[in-house]
Amino acid sequence: MVLPDKIQAMVARKDLLHTTVVLAMSADGKISDRGRSPARFGSAADQAHLEAQVALADVVLFGAGTLQAYGTTMSVRERALKQGRQERGQSSQPVQMVCSLSGELDASAKFFDQPVPRWLLTSQAGATRWQRTNHFEQVLIAPQLGNGGIDWPQIWRDLDNQNINRLAVLGGGQLTAALFEAELVDELWLTICPLVLGGERSPTPADGQGFLAAQAPQLKLSLVKQLGEELLIHYKVLARARRDGSEA
Ligand SMILES: NC(=O)c1ccc[n+]([C@@H]2O[C@H](COP(=O)([O-])OP(=O)(O)OC[C@H]3O[C@@H](n4cnc5c(N)ncnc54)[C@H](OP(=O)(O)O)[C@@H]3O)[C@@H](O)[C@H]2O)c1
Questions:
Q1: Domains of the chain
Q2: Residue of 66, 144, 147 to test ligand 1 pocket, by largest number of atoms within 8 Å of CB
Q3: Closest ligand 1 atom, CA of 173?
Q4: Is the CB–ligand 1 distance for residue 39 below 6 Å?
Q5: 204 ligand 1 Cβ < 6 A
Q6: What's the sign of the alpha-carbon dihedral 95, 100, 102, 106?
Q7: Tell me: the pLDDT tens digits for 6-49?
Q8: 69 has a pLDDT exceeding 80
Q9: What is the mean pLDDT of residues 213-218?
Q10: Residue 172 in contact with ligand 1 by CB distance below 6 A
Q11: How confident is the model at residue 244 (pLDDT cuts 50, 70, 90)?
Q12: Biggest alpha carbon–alpha carbon distance for the chain
């Protein structure tokens, strides 16, 4: 039976792993300053929220720009969160997967000393530098589309086939934009922090080419919570079929 396009998209979407984007941003919508420095403006409560989201994930995904900025990744350290992972039958730490098609990463970054499993998502050319080293447990070659872009839905299917159920995306703006474009994001957590960063080139939660309003991913507000001077906001991303009104 051939399903109408919209329903087919919805069915395909539901089969894929659950994807949560977690970001902190300034009151003017920037995830870093004009120097692209690591975003350390979130409070301790925001850091705890981030760690809790990381603890729920099987795989944590971030872009090379984010690794370059921080040099490290968020691992699970809190005892109760580690115990939660054990109770859910998850490994002690989620896999930390960095996306870099060029493969040009700093091998001396502290990230490579962190006690976490590391995977690299890269191109054939980018893989050559890392395949014979012990920096990554797995080096995945990203399937690419005719236009040179990454075939993200195929990657999601491949991860799904490896029994990966939950993925947390920790930025930055280039990566999240691509995942929104590929309609792979299910949830968005944003922490609005009490500062203004400005800068027309400062990164935002979703950079890339941007969407026209008519095609923009639509969100449904699910939670707003005040954390001291910050606001924690949780959105669910509406599937295209639901946005278009074809789902009851
Ligand atoms: N506030 C927060 O919560 C938060 C969280 C994370 C990051 N940040 C900030 O965000 C900034 C980094 O963000 P960013 O947008 O510059 O970089 P990014 O998205 O972290 O990484 C961009 C790089 O990752 C690879 N990549 C990502 N998406 C790709 C795609 N769709 N196709 C191909 N390659 C892709 C490419 O690496 P190659 O060029 O190596 O191929 C690309 O240059 C930093 O300033 C950081 O501090 C803030």
A1: 5-32+39-106+120-208+216-243 (3.40.430.10)
A2: 66
A3: 15
A4: yes
A5: no
A6: negative
A7: 433 433 444 579 999 999 999 999 999 999 999 999 999 999 99
A8: yes
A9: 96
A10: yes
A11: low
A12: 54
Q: Distance between terminal CA atoms of the chain?
A: 21
Atom 48 of ligand 1: nearest residue by CA position: 31
Q: State the number of CA atoms in the 13 A half-sphere of 167 facing the CB.
A: 25
Q: How many Å lie between the centroid of ligand 1 and the Cα of residue 142?
A: 16
Q: Mean pLDDT over residues 169-179, rounded?
A: 98
DSSP assignment string, 81-106 = HHHHHHHTT--SS-EEEEE-SS----
Cα 23 to averaged position of ligand 1 atoms, centre (Å): 12
Q: What are phi and psi of 59, to 5 degrees?
A: -135, 135
Atom of ligand 1 nearest to the CA of 41: 1
